[in-house]
Design goal:
About 50% of the residues lie in helices and about 5% in strands. The N terminus is likely disordered.
């Protein structure tokens, strides 16, 4: 584990030099605040923006029943945009949900509401054994090499997401659906691969040929060797509203329409505590540290972070990120080790998530999920200390 005493903190956003992919210069400013990676992000932005514009202008093809396969999770982002695609944009949508075995019960409730109220076709896909196998492999790997690269602390989450994105790719490819809509928030978009063939190659690189062919039954080879025009293109709808992305407004609109009955924290998957455990164990940071640092950076540079809420979790205007991280680290590692008093841990976790602006119900829901972490780990086959 990286020791905070051996690292330097960025004077702008509080990211540490021990965070994967982060360096702090002699002036005490990290490479993200210096915008050292802006060039790479700009290339990705231009590509995703061009593909989204192409999708918007594409004429309806009567030879295929759908304009796009829409990846629908039941979270606020995908529910909000699914409603817009169908009821405002008039798109022929196949709402595709991969039934992740780690899905929050609240996300499942939102999916039920959408099926009742949004006139789209819905399809449910699942493969519990394969996705659990991928998660076991990621979580149980030996400690990663330091210093790491950008986003390494989010590897388990990225691996899970990539798995069901590839399931969606295969479904779209089989049914000749030309586009796949993916509702990552604006901050995530700039760090995600959007080329289908490169996503496939990346999974092979991360997991090897044996495991990849095993969990996808050899079907990904069809994608690798397909003609370019035969492959679906991934579009990110929120690229068009990157300057006006407002989680609070979106949730309020959805609740007014009866399409959302929870909070963003309550629709997290049940692996959320384990994702924090992984980040703390290997990189000594909480799972949302990059997001929190981005908020701090925006507040300091603009005197207000409210108009730059480009991430799914909105942070309070005034927040001691380092103190929140220290408290969450202590209780997360205690629970993973089977130590400490559960009642005290529950109270501390509720206080932490209340400090992060969650209401009492959401804070209690997420706090309980942290206490359930050992049981979830045992079910998936993830080793804890």
């Amino acid at each position: 584990m990286v020791s905070l005493t051996a690292v330097t903190l960025c004077s702008v956003c509080t990211l540490s030099s021990g965070h994967p992919g982060i360096s702090v210069d002699d002036a005490g400013v990290c490479n993200l605040c210096r915008l050292d990676i802006a060039g790479d992000l700009l290339v990705n932005y231009r590509y995703t923006n061009a593909v989204f514009e192409e999708f918007q202008q594409a004429p309806r093809n009567p030879a295929v029943p759908y304009d796009c396969l829409f990846m629908y999770s039941g979270g606020k982002d995908s529910t909000y945009m699914l409603d817009k695609f169908v009821n405002e944009f008039g798109k022929r949508v196949l709402a595709y949900t991969f039934d992740v075995p780690f899905e929050s019960a609240h996300a499942a409730d939102n999916i039920r509401l959408a099926r009742e109220k949004i006139p789209a076709d819905f399809v449910l896909d699942s493969d519990d054994d394969s996705i659990k196998k991928v998660m076991r492999e990621v979580f149980n790997r030996p400690a990663p090499r330091k210093p790491g690269t950008y986003l390494d602390e989010k590897l388990p989450c990225a691996s899970c997401r990539t798995f069901f994105v590839l399931r969606a790719v295969l479904h779209a490819h089989r049914h000749r659906i030309p586009y796949i809509a993916m509702c990552a928030d604006p901050q995530q978009i700039l760090t995600m691969e959007s080329n289908v063939r490169e996503i496939v190659r990346g999974f092979y690189d991360a997991f090897g040929t044996r495991l990849t062919d095993e969990v996808f039954r050899g079907e990904l080879e069809e994608v690798l060797f397909a003609e370019e025009h035969e492959l679906p293109k991934i579009v990110f709808p929120f690229i068009a509203m990157r300057h006006s992305y407002d989680p609070d407004r979106m949730v309020a609109e959805l609740k007014a329409k009866g399409l959302y009955e929870s909070s963003p924290l309550e629709t997290h998957c049940t692996l959320f505590p384990l994702l924090n455990y992984y980040s703390f164990k290997h990189w000594d940071c909480m799972f949302y540290k990059l997001n929190a640092a981005s908020h701090v950076r925006a507040v300091k540079r603009n005197n207000s972070g409210t108009h730059r809420s480009t991430f799914s979790i909105k942070f309070p205007q005034v927040l001691d990120i380092q103190r929140v991280e220290e408290r969450l680290r202590e209780v997360t590692l205690q629970i993973a080790a089977g130590e400490g008093d559960r009642d005290e841990q529950l109270r501390e976790l509720i206080d932490i998530f209340r400090d992060l602006d969650a209401d009492e119900s959401a804070a209690r829901f997420v706090a309980q999920s942290f206490l359930d972490m050992p049981a979830v780990a045992a079910d998936v086959g993830i080793r804890l200390p």
